[in-house]
Amino acid sequence: MTSSLFLLALTLTLSIVAADISAYIEGQAQLPVAVLTDSWAVEVHGGIEAANEIAERHGFTNMGRVGAFANIYHFKMSSSIHNINENIKSGTEVQYMTTALKSEIKVGYVQQQSLHNWEKKYIQPTCQTDPLWCSQWTVNNTGQTNETNLYLDLNAEPAWIQGYTGNGILVGVVDDGVQHNHTDLRNNYVSASSYNFNENISDPSPPSGSSHGTACAGEIVMARDNNVCGVGVAYNASVAGLRLLGGDITDITVSSALSYSRDNIDIYSNSWGPPDSGFTIGGPGYLSSLALKEGAEMGRNGRGNIVTFAAGNGGGFEFDTCAADGYSQSIYAISVGAYAQNGAPASYDEKCSAKQTVALRENTRTTLTLTLSIVAADIGAYIEGQAQLPVAVFTDSWAVEVHGGIEAANEIAERHGFTNMGRVGAFANIYHFKMSSFIHSTNENVESGTEVQYMRTALQSEIKNNTGQTNETNLYLDLNAEPAWIQGYTGIGILVGVVDDGVQHTHTDLRNNY
Fold this sequence. Notes:
Layout: H1 5-11, E1 24-25, E2 28-29, E3 36-44, H2 47-57, E4 61-65, E5 72-76, H3 84-90, H4 93-102, E6 107-114, H5 156-161, E7 170-175, E8 195-196, H6 212-221, E9 238-243, H7 251-259, E10 267-270, E11 272-273, H8 286-302, E12 306-310, H9 326-329, E13 334-339, E14 355-360, E15 370-371, E16 397-402, H10 405-415, E17 419-423, E18 430-434, H11 442-448, H12 451-460, E19 468-471, H13 481-486
Helix pairs in contact: 7-8
């Protein structure tokens, strides 16, 4: 295996002069027999002239200062190298020279130099045991894809050599599931911190045909030297599977995944986000935003969770930017872009100011970022190239903040025809209320005034008793405006100037405010 340039510079610093002289007797490691040289390191006070005088007086040549030391000099003699055993037995001139140098008043430290048989330190080639290792240019680039960018990689091996292999770190992969019984993953899998939010069971195994989350987990923790696949960039780390994608996704399920086992999980890895179309704006709802904030402040028992989000795959679309992705934009998350093997941003990489780092990927649009699945078909409206917020598809779930404990939450849920499914994620006072009514679209609710609006109003009426308030969960960006309206913040007294292509002020919905 050819190591990276940095690795070579790091490890090939000491050259050896002689062959290996280590002796191994009956399987026991022995200290090597020292081979002395004709060089001495001598500490001399008084400057270069004093050093020259002392060297000449004792038959040495002063070769100059050693490195950056002010008072240590390299003295060299013409006598041949003696074996240390010979010196001890015969008391030859070599021992005498050291004693003579030490007798000088201006001399301090004196040491005759011996040869060091240091070895090069490197990770042994793993091509023989991990068949895909030699193809992993992102971790170990030896010119597999582009010889002009040799060594363009994550430079992981020097970190491994220093002991940074992920040991003691637990990564939660929030995705479409993790095939945790895979040979390359099972020894690093932590079931106690894993969960399936699609089916409300502990097993996060993906449905048939879904492999994205498993691939993401593998890139992190694939076992090393086990004759399977490749090597994870942090192969000694642990992984938890948090299955979120592939089912109905609401603010409740997202926030639950982003806060699950938050005192145990160090890093939440998220390679998903809103659709990469250039016309969709999406991001965390009230609960998900709160989960990110509390995770940063309270996760890992106060040390804070690290959350990463992929910046997106929409770079090939004219209008797409990760600025439209509220997850990637969150101040509590690290946005990760993509660089390709040519040393430039990948063709699908999205541009925005939120990106804080990049990872190396193939220069083709892959499934780096999955889109949020929705309950119904694509219902986004696109009018004359303008991005529209999609028509919300409501579920039979409510997120309700209730103060007074689980009993108060149960009472309120029962009073209004709900079942309290329990707390949402790690939140102390937010509960998941579920009703049996069928899902209604926004337009149907507005036109008919169906029970969904009624239930919302009924729950909000509990605010009068300071027992809770509601934030109805939907699939897209929720500004959580209703609680503000209830408190009287409706914009009265505020004048907004819209600088744009004009305003149709005679419109029925605008004329009274114009």
